[in-house]
């Protein structure tokens, strides 16, 4: 194959990779994946575009994004900024997913170059195609996670290293070319280290072993100079990483992820992050990593088991050739040495990852097949293994095709026919069908699972698609704790908190500070009804409720509650920091109207048919408190449902300030308290509630 044709095909393959990933990223992951780290990197990218390493929120408790470290001087992400800086390029161009497409094209192009250097042009093109067709590559290249970006720098390092070594060994002794590639290799692996230190070390280990070998068998000043340039470039990346650590954590030796969770690192023994803890023993590590590696080679590489067998055949062929032809291991750089380095990645990546408990975490429950992040995103900590797998699978395929063509030629020669071309072409087509079918079979469940998650996200974010918000503040619920972008990573703030919409946690009493910090904006509360479990395809009914603020000597929250025809008995409970009060409602009319009034440091329930049933008709209210009203509607079957109002209040200087209450219709006790929001279109027709909030001055009610 001539150079011009090779370059055209390689460029076309890279373009196909870019188009494929862009389509998958926009169609399959429009709201991002179930891995909420995507929001961290995209938030970090916005920070970098603003020239910042930290966020400085107006209300710290209400604006802490997922996986950001709070140290008193602001908030900084637990991740290194390299992937985020790459994603920022796409943001500058108006669409962050442009970066994903460019990275996919770059990885396929570099894979093609690397396999070409180690084998030949045909193998290089096929290796690039095999990388592109690997399910793990397609899925993880389409999300804003650091694995494909880091592999780009690792591949650039590998290509530059091999070319530097080859240039040094060339007949014309191209020292300048060798040194240029050597420096590029060092800078690339340095960036990879800054991006993901341990990942880069595992990838570089076979190359380091080769460097030591080459110095041992043939030391020379040019070789030592070349390798020194690579080492210096790598050390520069290490230095930048340590300087970044010092800038954000205060110590060059403390990485941000360690500042976030000191026990979330490499090694065996006690591991912990955010309350999730484990005794990560060597036995558990081997068990977990065996499952991860098995999943990789059965479901996530080109052709699944077929591609794995091809790669194994390619490695076996290389080892057999190396044993039979030891002269290929000369002092100068050879194809055999390049292939040995590639083969070494299988050992370094597999063995090295045993030491990292993240591979246990992505599996979820070890006893439940298909559980954990691995089901949707694959074994992404082993992403670099796609490189040697694609290369050796391509080598075995090309070798097999050549042998079949030679065999067919020998058969056809006595007959004078043209079977020498027909037979291998037919076998090639059959091979494409087998690999394509195996790959599609492995990819289909993952695509289906992620599509279900995306559909669930689409339902959850529907209120934002239905209206164009401007100068708004949206208060978000906290199903996973006090974090922004976890799980609502699609809803992110600009670093200056000055975008068209500002998102904050709906977490009393900080909510009052949020409202005060943005007095000229319209405030909303995002609520949903149903269990928040998009990873299982469960959808929620969501809504945006207007939030108003009232302030006066007293406040009154009025509610009109519909009672179904089957209702038989209505009771109410009012609670606050000072205790509880109980009430009964006379009869079961079609609607019950009640007023929750807060004044003089107490809260009470009043209404035309409402009577207190205990000694206390009121409860004491704290300075920063939440007054909860639950109205239980019984029926003849002995069960029923309840309406709930949660009224945030703040008392100071003789006045009461309140926010519009959170509203729930609890048809099932299991969903009450966060997942039973009153969404009119998602409850039965005979379950209805209307509310309004008023300030009361000197006995006169004033709507606000």
Beta-strand segment tally:
22
Helix content range: 40-55%
Total number of helical segments?
20
- Average predicted confidence as pLDDT: 91
Largest sheet: 8 strands, antiparallel
Terminal CA distance reads 78 Å
Q: Which band does the percent of strand residues land in? A: 15-25%
What features would you describe in this structure?
The protein is elongated. The protein has three domains: 3-31 and 78-434, no CATH class; 462-547, no CATH class; 550-703, no CATH class. Strand 3 and strand 4 (276-280) form a beta hairpin. It has 20 helices and 22 strands. With 704 residues, it is of the alpha+beta class. Strands 9, 11, 12, 15, 17, 18, 19 and 20 form an eight-stranded antiparallel β-sheet that branches. A six-stranded antiparallel β-sheet has the order 16-14-13-10-21-22, with no helix packed on it.
Concise account of the structure shown:
The chain is α+β, with helices and mostly antiparallel strands and 704 residues long.
């Amino acid at each position: 194959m001539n150079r011009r044709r090779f370059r055209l095909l390689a460029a076309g393959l890279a373009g196909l990779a870019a188009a494929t990933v862009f389509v998958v990223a926009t169609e399959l992951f429009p709201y991002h994946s179930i891995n909420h780290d995507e929001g961290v990197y995209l938030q970090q990218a916005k920070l970098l575009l603003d020239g910042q390493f930290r966020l400085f929120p107006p209300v710290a408790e209400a604006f802490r994004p997922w996986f950001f470290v709070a140290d008193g001087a602001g908030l900084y992400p637990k991740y290194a900024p390299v992937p985020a800086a790459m994603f920022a390029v796409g943001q500058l161009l108006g669409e962050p997913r442009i970066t994903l497409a460019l990275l996919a094209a770059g990885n396929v192009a570099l894979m093609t170059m690397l396999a070409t250097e180690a084998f030949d042009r045909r193998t290089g093109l096929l290796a690039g195609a095999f990388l592109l067709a690997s399910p793990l590559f397609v899925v993880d290249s389409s999300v804003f996670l650091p694995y494909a970006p880091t592999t780009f720098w690792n591949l650039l390092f590998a290509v530059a290293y091999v070319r530097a070594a080859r240039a040094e060994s060339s007949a014309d002794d191209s020292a300048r070319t060798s040194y240029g590639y050597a420096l590029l290799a060092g800078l690339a692996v340095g960036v990879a280290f800054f991006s993901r230190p341990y990942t880069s070390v595992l990838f570089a280990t076979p190359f380091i072993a080769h460097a030591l070998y080459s110095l041992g068998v043939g030391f020379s000043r040019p070789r030592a100079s070349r390798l020194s340039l690579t080492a210096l470039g790598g050390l520069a990346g290490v230095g930048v990483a340590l300087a970044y650590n010092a800038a954000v954590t205060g110590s060059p030796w403390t990485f941000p992820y360690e500042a976030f969770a000191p026990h979330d690192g490499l090694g065996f023994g006690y591991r912990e992050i955010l309350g999730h803890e484990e005794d990560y023993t060597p036995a558990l590590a081997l068990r977990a990593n065996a499952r991860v590696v098995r999943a990789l080679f059965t479901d996530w590489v080109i052709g699944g088991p077929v591609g794995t067998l091809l790669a194994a055949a390619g490695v076996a062929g290389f080892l057999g050739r190396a044993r039979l032809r030891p002269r290929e291991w000369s002092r100068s750089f050879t194809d055999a040495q390049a292939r040995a380095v590639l083969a070494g990645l299988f050992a370094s990546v597999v063995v090295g990852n045993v030491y990292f408990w993240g591979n246990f975490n992505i599996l979820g429950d070890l006893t439940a097949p298909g559980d954990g992040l691995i089901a949707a995103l694959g074994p992404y900590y082993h992403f670099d293994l796609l490189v040697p797998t694609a290369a050796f699978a391509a080598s075995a395929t090309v070798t097999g095709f050549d042998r079949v063509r030679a065999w067919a030629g020998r058969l056809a020669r006595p007959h004078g026919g043209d079977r020498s071309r027909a037979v291998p072409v037919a076998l090639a087509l059959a091979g494409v069908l087998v690999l394509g079918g195996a790959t599609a079979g492995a990819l289909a469940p993952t695509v289906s699972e992620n599509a279900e998650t995306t559909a669930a996200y689409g339902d959850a974010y529907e209120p934002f698609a239905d209206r164009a918000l401007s100068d708004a503040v949206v208060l978000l619920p906290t199903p996973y704790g006090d974090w922004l972008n976890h799980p609502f990573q699609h809803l992110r703030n600009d670093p200056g908190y000055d975008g068209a919409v500002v998102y904050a946690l709906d977490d009393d009493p900080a909510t009052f500070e949020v409202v005060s910090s943005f007095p000229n904006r319209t405030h909303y509360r995002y609520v949903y009804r149903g269990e928040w479990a998009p990873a299982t395809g469960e959808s929620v009914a969501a809504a945006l409720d207007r939030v108003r603020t009232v302030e006066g000597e007293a406040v009154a929250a009025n509610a009109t509650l519909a009672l179904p025809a089957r209702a038989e008995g209505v009771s109410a409970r009012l609670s606050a920091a000072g205790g509880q009060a109980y009430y009964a409602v006379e009869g079961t009319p079609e609607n019950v109207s009640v007023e929750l009034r807060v004044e003089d440091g107490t809260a009470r329930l009043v209404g035309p048919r409402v009577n207190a049933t205990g000694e206390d008709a009121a409860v004491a209210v704290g300075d920063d408190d939440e007054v909860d009203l639950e109205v239980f509607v019984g029926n003849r079957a002995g069960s029923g449902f309840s309406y709930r109002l949660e009224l945030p209040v703040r008392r100071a200087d003789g006045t009461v300030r309140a926010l519009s209450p959170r509203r729930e219709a609890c048809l099932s006790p299991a969903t009450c308290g966060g997942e039973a929001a009153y969404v009119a279109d998602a409850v039965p027709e005979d379950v209805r509630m209307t509310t309004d909030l008023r300030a009361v001055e000197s006995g006169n009610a004033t709507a606000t």
